[in-house]
Amino acid sequence: MRRLLPTLCLLAAIAAPAAFSQAQTLRIALREDADLLDPTLARSYVGRIVFAGLCDKLFDLNETLEIVPRLALSHEWADPVTLVIRLRPGVTFHNGEPVDAAAVKFSLERHLTLQGSFRRAEINSIDRVEEIDAATVRVILKSPSAPLLMQLTDRAGMLLPPKATAAAGKDFSQRPICSGPFQFTERVAQDRIVLDRFPGYWDAANIHFDKVIYQPMPDSAVLVANLRTGAIDLAERILPTDVDTIRKDPKLRIVTSPALGYEGITFNTGNGERSKAPIGQHNLLRQAFEAAIDRQALVDVVFSGMYRPTAQAISAASPFHVPDVAPRPRDIARAKALIKESGVPTPIAVSMNVPNTPDRAQLAEVIQSMVREAGFELKITLVEFAASLQAATRGEFESYLIGWSGRADPDGNLYAFLHSKSGQNDGRYANADVDALLDQARQITDVAERRAVYAKFWRQEQRDLPIIYLFAPVNVVGMSARLQGFRPVPDGLIRLQGLAMAK
């Protein structure tokens, strides 16, 4: 392994393959360490990047967010609640088990039933899965589901080998087995995840590396330095403040593309003792907290103006975006009036869990300064990223500064975090009207009708403010200028098919 140096940042590029080097290792820097390497139980963005090399899915997305087949060869809707999927023939898992209808049935049922599953809420419209023959499955829904097919382009669509998964039990994530282009070799927490090329991969002609090493580098200075020295080949996220440095280096390239996600503040409104803090119990205080924040200033100070302030989880490029849900300007007088109306005396103590990357730490400090003027005393607690996710699940937070990588269908940005029965609803926010609207939106395929339901949803969300949405980021990838074949898909994942190092 090449020695890593303590310094700076990175990003990506596109080109047609030239003459490629053989028997190479691709080194990818991640902004955090991944969580569990189990598609059913995982929830981190960087984990999805690792899964892109480890686990194939039934479907995937292309650069224009169209759904394209992967392990599925084709699909059809027999009726609004019956999805028939035909599988690609001759595909095997890393251990030799066949990728067949039995594996689809096993995997979807595991996603639906395994304790702690984060996929359950994504595909809970499924009533049952039937094997028609070895290469064909029938998925029967409880009711029509507009986002289901899109959910199967992510972890819910990742298939697992039934025998090996059952044998591994709760230890599956220690040595995961999938059907992707690379198979698991080793993991050293906070240091590296190593995958080696799977010789039996069905799309082997598009794989040009023998090994992939994913290395967490939360410090942007360290990341950029390693990119510039060639110790890493690609960085999945470059901070806007480092873009000019990368662009000036002739050995490197940057690729930017629209993103689907957001950065926001999640409040604990019902998950254990920490939810009893004033900020969790009073929506007026959350409204005051938001009124004290200048989103544009946050973006300008921390991210060089490269990101876009937002007040909703749906991208402005989406047909489901509701234009009326826009960020309000900072209003300290309104914030103070809302605090007075709440009856809670100032200063109001609020603790905030913050993943320990330098950019998020700076972001939290700027928010801390802003809300102080309204009467809030914000205490920042820096936490390692994967640990911060675990703490959120347990309810060990009052507020949590956390981003979401986003999904092409708006349901993937909303239901998981704001429906009372969803596993990723860390704050245990519960509102029967919100649940009903999110359930209703899932069953509507007409864009205008569905957007109108989301407009009603946003009116309630903005009153309750279980999440304050701050800004929408941009995907910025840095890489060696020799690395060819990168495809900038808005979901930000690093797809290894087609990537190659020119001589």
Give a brief rundown of this model.
With 503 residues, the protein is of the alpha+beta class. It contains 15 helices and 21 strands.
Number of domains: 3
Give, in spatial order, the strands making up the sheet with the most strands: 8-9-10-1-11-19-12
Major sheet attributes: 7 strands, mixed
Please state the average pLDDT score: 94
Q: Which percent range describes the beta-strand content? A: 15-25%
Poorly predicted runs are 1-20
Shape: globular
Broad CATH class of the largest domain: Alpha Beta
* Gyration radius over CA: 23 Å
Provide the CATH architecture of the largest domain.
Answer: Roll
Protein model, in words:
By secondary structure, the protein is α+β, with helices and mostly antiparallel strands. The protein has three domains: 25-30 and 180-258 and 475-501, Periplasmic binding protein-like II (D-Maltodextrin-Binding Protein, domain 2, 3-Layer(aba) Sandwich); 59-165, Dipeptide-binding Protein, domain 1, CATH 3.90.76; 262-472, Dipeptide-binding Protein, Domain 3 (Dipeptide-binding Protein, domain 3, Roll). 29% of the residues lie in helices and 23% in strands. The chain contains 15 helices and 21 strands. Helix 14 runs antiparallel to helix 15. The longest helix is centred in the C-terminal third of the chain and has 18 residues, at 447-464. The radius of gyration is 23 Å and the shape is globular. The two termini are 20 Å apart.
